[in-house]
Specification:
- By secondary structure, the chain is α+β, with helices and mostly antiparallel strands.
- Helix content is about 25%, strand content about 25%.
- Helix 9 packs antiparallel against helix 11.
- The relative contact order is 0.20.
């Protein structure tokens, strides 16, 4: 499993490898091109079906690309592309964006998507600070010119972010939801949408989707899609060998190697730009020293990790902020220098306020998720680099759900994570 981005923590990046991420799929060779049910699998769980929450990769992918499309999208090069919006025009003098709605999109009851749906969604969500506050604070108002045209007046920078982040709901439904939690329960209950599929059921074991009979914007290959959740690779492998699974997403190198020899399957690789990093929890007293975090970065041979773990498909981002962050251009670089880091830390650590009664620097608690073998490799390498500095490390490899709980509770020092820049992946395009 993968993060999009942890936005609810104050984080600083100690390691960032920027480059092309490879995400192979295992695909059964005899899947019917049309009709029937696709049985898909992922290692881990989808914890929520919630288009307001982009912290979890699969939830974000399903909501954006399958269940609840947004007005615009980003392609693999980070360029803005149409989706529910057919076209748009920006008037910077009046701070307005005129948006033409693609009425070819239809809700699964046959009603067309209209500008009234867009207006109702924005006006309803703008009154609820608990949902998309940072995005919707940029919007002053959303008006309707006709059923196919609406005008957004914006009052802050980056208005595009609003069009990227806000899912559109039917006007007939959105006004009935009185608070954010009722909206989230509504999404998880399913039964509606204007994307290619509609959510039928969502349980701890998996989700089931059914085709939207009125979707015409792209091919819809299957009548139903069942996505099964697996906690263990061995259990998943047994079901693959028994031909109970048609496709597995984001396959680890170990599983790919085991399945590659099976005659009934093939590998299909998707690439996309992304970042892998360690995110430090700045709520911990012993991590609040900026110089400490800089020295931890200097102590890690990031190029060697990129070469060994990512097979060279990446570049080292030698700064303490990720590309796109407002501070990125202002950061100096921090090249690898393990001996310098060790020497400076010997002088720095005794002076730090660690919060410990004995004054000793505590062991760093590092976590990552067990479903991602690349994360585990990074964790093991980072552990060795930090231990060379004389700092103890306690690392844990957790199930996705447990790791998410730890992050919410702040019960960690650093987490190995990654996120991707694009939401372009098409999970049911299996016939390339």
């Amino acid at each position: 499993m993968r993060f999009k981005l942890i936005s609810w923590l104050i984080i600083i990046l100690g390691l960032t490898a920027a480059g092309i991420h490879f995400y192979p799929k295992i695909i059964k060779k005899d899947i019917p091109v049309h009709g029937g049910q696709l049985n898909a699998a992922i290692l881990g769980k989808i914890l929520t079906i919630n288009p307001f929450d982009d912290r979890e990769f699969y939830n974000e992918q399903l909501c954006d690309n399958v269940l609840f499309p947004k007005l615009i999208r980003l392609d693999l090069q980070g360029r803005v592309r149409p989706r529910l919006a057919r076209s748009w025009a920006v008037d910077t003098s009046s701070h307005q964006i005129i948006i033409k709605i693609n009425n070819d999109y239809r809700w699964n009851n046959g009603d067309p998507l209209t500008a009234y749906d867009v207006r109702a969604t924005y006006h309803t969500l703008m009154g609820r600070n608990e949902l998309l506050y940072e995005t919707l604070r940029r919007v002053q108002k959303m008006e309707v010119l006709d059923s196919s045209t609406c005008v957004m007046t914006y009052k802050a920078d980056r208005p595009w972010q609003t069009l990227l982040d806000v899912p559109v709901l039917p006007e007939s439904i959105i006004g009935q939801k009185t608070d954010g939690q009722s909206l989230i329960r509504f999404f998880e209950k399913g039964g509606w949408g204007c994307g290619p599929y509609v959510l039928d059921s969502f349980t701890d074991e998996g989700i089931v989707l059914s085709a939207n009979p009125y979707f015409r914007s792209a091919p819809v290959y299957f009548d139903t899609v069942a996505i099964h959740f697996y906690e263990e690779t061995d259990t998943l492998l047994r079901d693959i060998e028994a031909l109970r699974i048609d496709v597995v997403y984001s396959v680890s190198p170990v599983l790919a190697e085991k399945v590659e020899s099976l005659p009934g399957f093939r590998l299909q690789t998707t690439t996309e730009p992304g970042y892998t990093c360690i995110a430090w929890n700045l709520a911990q007293p012993h991590l609040q020293s900026r110089r400490l975090r800089q020295l931890l970065t200097i102590a890690m041979d990031r190029q060697t990790m990129v070469d060994g773990i990512l097979l060279g498909y990446g570049t080292v981002n030698d700064v303490l902020a990720y590309p796109g962050h407002p501070c990125y251009a202002m950061q100096q670089t921090y090249a690898y220098n393990e001996e310098k880091a060790k020497t400076e830390l010997n002088n720095l650590l005794p002076a730090l306020n660690t919060g410990n009664e004995d004054g000793l620097y505590p062991a760093l608690k590092l976590i990552t998720n067990k479903e991602n073998e690349i994360h585990i490799d990074f964790l093991n390498n980072i552990t060795q680099y930090i231990q060379f500095l004389g700092i103890e490390v306690e690392n844990e490899v957790l199930q996705w759900e447990t790791m998410m709980d730890r992050i919410e509770q702040g019960a960690f020092d650093g987490v190995i994570m990654d996120w991707v820049e694009s939401d372009e992946l098409e999970y049911f395009n299996l016939f390339d």
